[in-house]
Amino acid sequence: MKFDFSPIRKIIKPDKSILLTSHSNPDGDAIGSVLALYHFFTQSGYQVKALVPNQFPDFLRWMPGCKDIIIFEKNKELGKKLLNGSDIIFSLDYNSPDRMGEAGKSLAKSKATKILIDHHINPDIYNFDFCYSNINTSSTSELVYLLIKEIGPVQINSSISECIFTGIVTDTGSFSYNCNFEQTFSIVSELIQQGIDITKINRLIYATNTESRLRLLGYSLSEKLKLYPGFNTAIICLSKEELKKYNHQIGDTEGLVNYALSIKGIRFAAFFSEKDEKIRMSFRSVGDFSVNEFARLHFEGGGHRNAAGGDSYLSMEKTIDKFEKLLFDYKDPLTK
Ligand code: MN
């Protein structure tokens, strides 16, 4: 699928204020796509601001331009003003205003021209004026790269390239899923021509463990991993107290669910963490089992077929109970 980004070129004018936004709990692709466009518009001489709902993890803090990102949770007045007052809003790496949390209410009401660029299924097309959504792409950053290349004329420089690469490498688990596309690799090859240093970026992103994060990982795997062999399912659950004991920081449990999924024969993995008044849930699967559907139907969430998230407002114990009961309903797709 090839998008025609020329309508965007027509809308964007130097006298228009542009706001770039991402989903809550921004990940590498959210921040990568926001910052790549931020550099692009800044260098093109446009008025541009970047706003994300809440703090992003420490392992992205090296990214060029990340200090300019406004965090809605820390500065709601400014955030609301930008959402209400900007002429053009880009919604990057999410498919519906809800995914912005509280900030999404202002987004839904805003009179701005709204442009969605995303790769999650079921985009909420009625809330956007332009919808560039493609699930067959590694990342939103990949789509942003195509947009920048098409609308030009700014050259793709090293800052833009590093941001795009970060989005692609993090959203594909270092090229292990969501990347069976020629285009993804031809873009990476172009980024290398721009001079990105993949070894350096990988160290910046992945060689960032703290001692407490590694100990939390060890504890989770040795004490908290639970298998349901009859359902090819594995889960890890961490309570508020356990997270506190290991001095949990944002991003520390990122990727934990993938360890459960890496067990031979496991098709469905889940990670539950207790946060404030809810249980935050991550779901992963291999093959046809749709965790997007599972999360959407039972845990007020969604995402991709093989990677999704959700929330439970029950206690941890009751959430696990509900999850275990649901497994019986899915025994067939999980085992046959
Ligand atoms: Mn993404």
Give a verbal description of the structure.
With 336 residues, this protein is of the alpha/beta class. It has 2 domains: 6-206, Alpha-Beta Complex (inorganic pyrophosphatase (n-terminal core)), CATH 3.90.1640; 211-335, Diaminopimelate Epimerase, Chain A, domain 1. Helices cover 41% and strands 19% of the residues. The protein has 14 helices and 12 strands. It has helices at 6-11, 28-43, 76-85, 103-109, 140-151, 158-171, 182-193, 198-206, 211-224, 240-245, 256-261, 291-298, 316-329, 331-335, and strands at 17-22, 47-52, 70-71, 88-92, 113-118, 130-133, 225-228, 233-238, 268-275, 278-285, 302-303, 307-312. It has a 6-stranded parallel β-sheet, with helices on both faces. Strands 7-8-9-10-12-11 form a 6-stranded mixed β-sheet. The longest helix is centred in the first third of the chain and has 16 residues, at 28-43. The chain starts with 5 loop residues before the first helix and ends with a helix. Bound molecules: manganese (II) ion (MN). Residues 29, 93, 119, 139-140, 171 line the site of manganese (II) ion.
Biggest sheet features: 6 strands, parallel
End-to-end CA span: 33 Å
CATH homologous superfamily identity of the largest domain: inorganic pyrophosphatase (n-terminal core)
How many beta-strand segments? 12
CATH architectural type of the largest domain? Alpha-Beta Complex
Entry summary:
The protein has 14 helices and twelve strands. The chain is of the alpha/beta class.
Give me the secondary-structure topology.
Elements: H1 6-11, E1 17-22, H2 28-43, E2 47-52, E3 70-71, H3 76-85, E4 88-92, H4 103-109, E5 113-118, E6 130-133, H5 140-151, H6 158-171, H7 182-193, H8 198-206, H9 211-224, E7 225-228, E8 233-238, H10 240-245, H11 256-261, E9 268-275, E10 278-285, H12 291-298, E11 302-303, E12 307-312, H13 316-329, H14 331-335
Parallel strand pairs: 1-2, 1-4, 2-3, 4-5, 5-6, 8-9
Antiparallel strand pairs: 7-8, 9-10, 10-12, 11-12
Manganese (II) ion is lined by residues 29, 93, 119, 139-140, 171.
